[in-house]
């Protein structure tokens, strides 16, 4: 599903964020990406949805070599990769329904199809009754649920979650993890960058630790391994 071979990332200021990354993530896996601040986790994650491009090496997502992808085809790639952010990134002037529907409207889906799929997805994350609310009328946990709904509305094969519980209280964070586990159980590959030691140590999954731009650990059922 996701493969990186000898990937390096050097920024114009000379900083080498990633160095010699070799990793394979199979279809249906749930993978935590952990490591200290500044270790290269964000760059590692952004490579997967081509927010960043490697300086060298190859990245393949679901059979597509990202280096061969023309800019006009990047939106098509991202239809198959859902992304959830720590700060939600919802459009503040759009309702919950409109935020989730936006990805389908870009594809010019029929209005009846959009309404059905959006309401089904809102039901999945437990917020069908908040369809007409604006983002600032919701709690942080509810906003993250909407962010997840928007990310999965196109049934992506891969879901990238970048610190999805970082702005949430512990109880709400566990609720978000329940949703992510359910998505994963339906066959979606999930890659989640996190600093949440309790979640990583309790919900055992594969752990990839990034330190100083390299893969320091890759454990099938690993632990967090760092002090917060």
UniProtKB/TrEMBL annotation:
Membrane topology classification: Peripheral membrane protein
GO function terms (MF aspect): ATP binding
Role noted for this protein: Part of the ABC transporter FtsEX involved in cellular division.
Subunit structure: Homodimer. Forms a membrane-associated complex with FtsX.
Record-linked Pfam families: ABC_tran (PF00005)
The UniProt record lists the keyword Secreted: no
Coiled-coil region list: none
The UniProt record lists the keyword Nucleotide-binding: yes
Protein name: Cell division ATP-binding protein FtsE
UniProt keywords, alphabetically: ATP-binding, Cell cycle, Cell division, Cell membrane, Membrane, Nucleotide-binding
Membership in a protein family: Belongs to the ABC transporter superfamily.
Domain annotation ABC transporter: ranges: 2-227
Record GO biological process: cell division
Cellular compartments annotated: Cell membrane
Gene3D superfamilies: P-loop containing nucleotide triphosphate hydrolases
